[in-house]
Structure formats: C-alpha cells, structure tokens
UniProtKB/TrEMBL annotation:
Membrane topology value: Multi-pass membrane protein
Keyword Ubl conjugation: no
Transmembrane segments: 15-36, 445-467
Protein's name in the database: Suppressor of tumorigenicity 7 protein-like
Family classification: Belongs to the ST7 family.
Main location: membrane
Length: 477
C-alpha cells in the first residue's frame, strides 16, 4: 500500500490525461466494432463469445443461439435487387359492399374502405367485367360506364338501366348484389340471377370463341363473370352456415377452371374446411398449394403452422419444455410458426388480441398489415378452437426476430421483408386504424455498455485536461 501511494504521488496530471484519452480511444474502437458486428450479423460479438466459449468453461449450459445466416456483400446486394416490388392483391375473402361494409358505416359512422382501395376495385371491375365487344350489346355498354362511376347510387341506377335493356345482364346483377343488397340473403338472390344469366352467355361465347380475337376476348370476360359469381355464391353459403355447400362449389370451381389459380380460391376453401374441422382435407389442400414456386400468403403459412401446432399444443408447457427440451413434433411446430412469422410478422398480435381488428380491406399487401388484418379477421376463431394453439404461438413467435438477424436486409426462408409495405398499408387501411410496422430489433446490452464506457472515459479525459490538479487529487483520494 505504501509503494502504491508513493507511485501515485509521483504521477503527473499529463499521465492521467494520457491514460483517460487512451482508454476512451480503446473503448471507442470496441464500440465501433460491436456496432459493425451487430449491423452485419445481428448479434453482439462480446455476448456471442461469452455464451459460446466462456460459459461452457465455467460450467454453464451450452445454449448457444442459432448461428446467423452470413451473407456476403455481393449476396446481400443481389437479394436486394431481386426483391419483388410491393404488389397489391385482391383480397380473396373481401366482404360485401352493401351487406357488410355499408352496415358498418351505418352503425359506427366510420368509412371502412379508403378511396385508394375502392379505386383499385373499380379498376378490377373494368378489367374483369368489360371487353372490346361491349359496344355490340347495349346493356354491356351501360355497364362499362357504370363500373367507372364514382357515386354508388349512380352505379346502382346504371345497373337498373342495363337490366331494362337486357334482363339477362349478368354484370348488372353482380353490381346490385355487391352494392344494393343490404343482407347476405338479398345478395345471394341477386347472385343466383347473375349465375343463370352468366351461364347462358358463357355457353354462347364458348360456341363462337374461335371465330375472331374479339370473340376470344368476350369469352375471357364471360368466364371471369361466371367464376366471380360462383365464388361469391360460395361465400354467401359460407356466411349463411351452409358450409358443405360452399366447399362443394369451391372444389367444383377449382376443377373446372384450374388455370385461374391467381384468384386464390384455395384460400376460401381452406377457411371453410377449417370451419368444418376437416383437418385432413386442409392438409391435402396445403400439400398442393404450399409450394415454393407459388406466391405464398399468410393463409397458407399460418394454416400450416396451425396444423403442426394442433398436434402438440394441448400438452405443451414452456416450463416442461425448458427442462426436458423440445420433442420432434414440438420443434416442427415451432419452426412452422417461425416460418409464418417471417412471412408476415403482423399476424400474431391480432391472433393474440394484443391489437384490435378492423374490417379487412378489399385489397391486401402480402406480408403487410392489411394481409394480417384480413387473415386474423376470419381465422382467429380457428386458432381459438384448438386448445393451446394460441399459447404455443405466444411462447414462440418472438423467437423469429432472434433467428433472423436483420430481416429488412436478409431473409431466412423468404426474401427480405419489403420496406415499402408501411406506405401501401396506410393507403389500404382506414385512417382510424393504427398501422402495424415491422418490429424494430433492440440493440444488445453490450452495445449500450460500450457506448456508455466510451462516453464516460471521454468525459474523464476532458475533465483531466481542464482541471488536472483537481482530478489528480480525486484519483489519489
């Protein structure tokens, strides 16, 4: 102690200044390296070394986190270039304008659909329900103008004008079913009339479709009308409780028009089969459509996770699993949940009722909040029906963000999460809904620690430079 006291008394203020500057510089280098390592690999270097190498030496458990997928700069740049743009899709389970969206507005006084969403629907209607030969039929000419009308009452009036010209105008009945009918029962009546007229026109188009390109375009339009009407009739039957009838219509539709897979009728079928609790049939549909070459959806990913969770959720306990480890079936269920959450990270908060739902929009953005709202709106009841499924989801879904180091730049199973979804979702979802954004990854403890150490040592260096004698007295004391 005497030797240390003598040594400290002989040191000058310059020594203390040099010491604090050096320690500040070293801690700054450590901080910069930690930040760079976190940006590149998504984990703290110090924490990773301590968990992987130091803990086993002192007798700790070897619970090393899964190794992050390392991407080179070239691979990262390539994946960013290949990342698809944010494409808006028609919601396979969109509600009825008059019977559901309008009723919500009458009760709450809030507009459930945005102008952008309704404008996209108007474009869809013009694409699906019109063609170049509309001038040959006066009723179709009127309906071509009707789909462009912005005022709902003007569209309904035009539909009645078309029916006066031609009582078998299928698209006029479609418009009335969507917008004038105030109940699902009324909508179904209009759609049955549309089906009768649509089938008759479709048969005529089939007989003469090879005569000219105009007749081929007319057949495509009449096919679109027929498929649309049958699908909506299936949705009416589903909403009115005739689920087996709805399933039959959907299956027949998929067999008759297999090339129209982009309409995602299989998502309507999945939801109806889940309501019937026909889980073997659900698995058969997933086996056909859950393919890497097809565009994924939240309905496919989360339904696959639900079926795997169903096998283990009833007996799953996080305390027991932490003691004995996960079984093979539990690992498969957790991996399926991680896969689903990676595809769309917004769904769990709605399924766990941590965030309030709104009516789903008519268009959705895959991997976005709009798709999460649309999925949870119809599938929450199916998750609740399986005992323990939501508990398993609650215990495991956040692990996805530790498994994927930096999801906006890298992906584990899918391409990196698109950064454009927030902007598009704000245009699709109503203003009174708080749009969900991708969860930000929290900074590790050691980044905060090294930043604080660097700042503290820099402050000491500054004080030593400004008040050398005072700091020397303080150190000696």
């Amino acid at each position: 102690l005497l030797t240390v006291t003598v040594f400290l008394s002989t040191l000058t203020p310059k020594f203390y200044f040099a010491l604090t500057v050096t320690s500040s510089f070293i801690s700054g280098l450590i901080f910069v390296f930690e930040w760079w390592h976190f940006r590149k690999y998504g984990t703290s270097f110090i924490e990773q070394v301590s968990v992987s190498h130091l803990r086993p030496l002192i007798g700790g458990a070897e619970n090393s986190p899964p190794a992050p997928a390392a991407f080179s700069a070239g691979e990262s740049e390539t994946s960013r270039q290949n990342m698809p743009e944010c494409k808006v899709w028609r919601n396979p389970l969109n509600l009825f304008r008059g019977a559901e969206y309008s009723r919500y507005m009458w009760v709450t006084g809030k507009e459930p659909l945005t102008y952008y969403d309704m404008n996209l629907s108007a474009q869809d209607h013009q694409t699906f329900f019109t063609c170049d030969t509309d001038a040959l039929r006066p009723s179709d000419t009127v309906m071509q103008k009707a789909w462009r009308e912005r005022n709902p009452q003007a569209r309904i009036k035009a539909a009645y004008q078309a029916l006066e010209l031609n009582n078998d105008c299928a698209t006029a009945y479609v418009l009335l079913a969507e917008e004038e009918a105030t109940t699902i029962v009324d909508a179904e009546k209009y759609f049955k009339q549309a089906l009768k007229a649509g089938e008759m026109i479709y048969r005529k188009s089939q007989n003469c479709h090879s005569q000219s390109p105009q007749h081929e375009a007319q057949l495509r339009r009449d096919t679109n009308v027929l498929v649309y009407v049958k699908r909506r009739l299936a949705m009416c039957a589903r909403k009115l409780g005739r689920i087996r009838e709805a399933v039959k219509i959907m299956r027949d539709l998929m067999k008759e028009f297999p090339l129209l897979s982009m309409l995602n009728i299989h998502e309507n079928l999945l939801e109806a089969l889940l309501e019937l609790q026909a889980y073997a049939d659900v698995q058969a549909v997933l086996a056909k459509y859950d393919d890497i070459s097809l565009p994924k959806s939240a309905a496919i990913c989360y339904t696959a996770a639900l079926l795997k969770a169903r096998a283990v959720s009833e007996r799953f306990s996080p305390e027991t699993a932490s003691k004995r480890g996960l079984s093979t079936a539990e690992i498969n269920a957790v991996e399926a949940i991680h896969r689903a959450v990676e595809f769309n990270p917004h769904v769990p908060k709605y399924l766990l009722e941590m965030k309030s739902l709104v009516l789903p929009p008519e268009h959705i953005l895959k991997r976005g909040d709009s798709e999460a709202v649309a999925y949870a709106f119809f599938h929450l009841q199916h998750w609740k029906r399986i005992e323990g499924a939501l508990n398993l989801l609650h215990c495991t879904w956040e692990g996805t963000f530790r498994m994927i180091p930096y999801p906006l730049e890298k992906g584990h199973l899918f391409y990196p999460y698109p950064s454009c979804t927030e902007t598009a979702d704000r245009e699709l979802l109503p203003t009174f809904h708080e749009v969900s954004v991708y969860p930000q990854k929290e900074l590790p403890f050691f980044i905060h620690f090294t930043a604080g150490l660097c700042s503290f040592s820099a402050m000491l260096a500054l004080l030593t430079h400004q008040f050398p004698e005072l700091m020397v007295i303080f150190v000696k004391a």
